[in-house]
Amino acid sequence: MTPVDDDAPPASPAETLALIQQERAAVAGTVSLNPLGYYLPWGAAWLIGYGLLFLRYGPDGRIFVDLPAWLPLVVLFAAMVLAMISTAVVSARRGRGVEGRSTWQGTAYGFAWFLAFAGVGSTTGRFAKYLPEQEQGLLWACVSVGTVAVMYMVGSAIWLSRDMFVLGAWLTVINIAGVALGPGWHSLLVAVGGGGGLILFGLILWARERRRRG
Prior knowledge:
Helix content: over 70%
Mean pLDDT: 85
Structural class: mainly alpha
Number of strands: 0
Strand content: under 5%
Order of helices and strands: HHHHHHH
Radius of gyration: 22 Å
Distance between the termini: 37 Å
């Protein structure tokens, strides 16, 4: 019986090309970002959290559902914390074993998110107190959503992703429309257009990735 040498070189250029493609697919599978693990938690957080804000603090102060006044914000913040944890886990798995330029890009981008929202919190908190209560809520929401939209568009330049730019531009449009319509309506647009848009975006990327992998 003739022994088999597993380390023998490929017998032809075609086999070499097939081996390269196989290794690329294996590496891509270990470092690719799971869109469902990233976008679905954030989409659900916005859909549920801002949806409850709309039901409790509707346009012109209307209350569609008489929820406890504290409940919508507590649910929104709790859901966002869970989304942050999901993002951290997915990002950690993606970056495992990866070094160099990609690692620096991801780290810098992550710190940019943190610093951006630190600035949002300090600046908005300083001036919101001079506004009526409903306008305070609108200010916090529109500045936060606007920051997220800009960060997605910046991310599109870093990762060379047109999809991220489209998502950021879409969030910018619904944010501007919500501000124009006023308190209550902004929450509805962010819940449906923002949260629903993030969920749809994640599903589209997931389906595209499955088709790419065959």
